[in-house]
Amino acid sequence: MRLFIAVLFPDPIVDSLASLRDKLHNEAVSGSFVPRENLHLTLSFLGECSSSEERLVEEVLDSTSFKPFSLRMDRIGFFQRPDGDIWWVGAEENKELSDLQRSISSSLSKKGFKLEKKRFSPHITLARRVITTTRAGRIEPIETEVNEVSLMLSERGDGRMIYTPLYSIQAVCMK
Questions:
Q1: Which of 16, 52, 119, 137 has the most CB atoms within 10 Å of its CB?
Q2: How buried is residue 96: exposed, middle or buried, by Cβ count under 10 Å (0-12/13-18/19+)?
C-alpha cells in the first residue's frame, strides 16, 4: 500500500484552495488538476509500505505530540518540469509546522523508513503538467488552524488517485 502523512483541511479552506485551482484551470492550456477531495499538505511521503510498516507509522504518530498552530498560505507558484509545471499554493515559513514535520521524519527514519532527503517546502499541489501563461505570485492569504495529522492511503481507482485517511492524531491542547 502507498502511504503518506498529511495535514488535511476543513471544508472552507478546501473551498478556497479549490477556487484557486479552478482559476488556474480556466487560464491553463492543459494540465491534470487535483480533485477537491485530494487537496492536502504532505508532511512525509512514505511510498509502498507493508501492513507491519503501517503499524510502525501509527506508533510514530502516537508518540508525536504537538500543540494546535496557525498556518497561513500566501502565494501561488510552480515547480518547473519539462512536461508541464506542478502548480501549488505555498505556506509562509512556520516554525511549528517545520518542527512537526522534522519530528515525524526523524522518528520515521529511526524506525528504518527511507525518506526523501530534499528540504521540506510546505505546499498544497493544485495541478500537474500545467501549460499556462499565468504568473506565480502573492494571493489573498488563506489561514487555518492545524490540529490534526493523518496517515493517508494513496491508491488508483476509477482512473484517478483516491486518498483515504487511515489513522489520525490530534493536537494536544495545553493550558
A1: 16
A2: middle
Q: HSE on the CB side for 102, CA within 13 Å?
A: 7
Q: Determine if the pTM surpasses 0.85.
A: yes
- How large is the angle between the packed helices 95-110 and 51-62, nearest 10 degrees? 140
CA distance 97 to 119: 13
Give per-residue pLDDT as tens, 29-63: 999 999 999 999 999 999 999 999 999 999 999 99
At residue 142, what are phi and psi to the nearest 5 degrees? -115, 120
